[in-house]
Amino acid sequence: MTDWLWDHGGEGFAQAYRVDEVLLDLQSPYQRIRVIRTPLFGRMLILDDAVQTSEADEFCYHEMLAHPPLFTHPHPRRVLIIGGGDGGLLEEVLKHSVERVVMVEIDRMVVDATLRHIPEIPGGAFDDPRAELRIEDGFAYVRNTPERFDVALVDSTDPQGPSVPLFGEAFYRDLHRVLGEDGILAVQSGSPLYQAELITQVRRNLRQHFPVVRTLLTYVPSYPGVLWTFTLASKRLDPAELSADEVDRRVAGFGLRYYTGAQHRAALNPPPFLKQVLES
Ligand code: SAM
Question: Both 270 and 193 in a single domain?
């Protein structure tokens, strides 16, 4: 019998993938972790029942979470990643001439699963001497660290279990403290089709601490509904003021497959249906 993985979006909606092979299926203290092989997306990382990333389209997600804030900041040197256990985001960050990246992931078994079964996603990122991987709760880390960062990226699972506090006002207050004067932050903020309330909540919580809040719209084919949002927040810098020419000048040589100056501008110019959500 053919097996399918059903990734549920909103009520009565799911995207399905034919499972040609199960490479890993185990339970960590935090979540069920699976790596499956599918015909179109290749190997996919599944946490509980939700697709996290895939060999075929990981660049769509990771480039659009990493580069809009990293190019908005004039000289990002110190970067913090919360979550992001598959290492795909870390790989994108390390394409910049950063000095130090601290990645705080709560579940070592997610890192190990990716390194063992989809090592192409992190590439050599975890071996880069600029990167420090810490296995601990990102909320507690941000609350207690004396370190300061230029850019913080929150690559969390949807709000459930240990990731719930990562969408709250207290976490954003602590992130404001660890970010410098030109500090900028980007968080994954969910689907505009069936998580509009999450987007509104994230924006409301961010606004309590950051004067600039911008939500961008992009495409992640392996997420239910394909359309996805990231929300950026900063103390001063506005990603919407960055020109396409400036992005194209600075991005030359990065070898990216998704992010360009035109994509930056388009993603930050939401269509009317999303504007309505953002203004609500
Ligand atoms: N791109 C994915 C998505 O949007 O579906 C997220 C990928 S990444 C694998 C999410 C990671 O966040 C998971 O590995 C999970 O263990 C981690 N995570 C969840 N809560 C966390 C917390 N409180 N601190 C640090 N990492 C956390």
Answer: yes
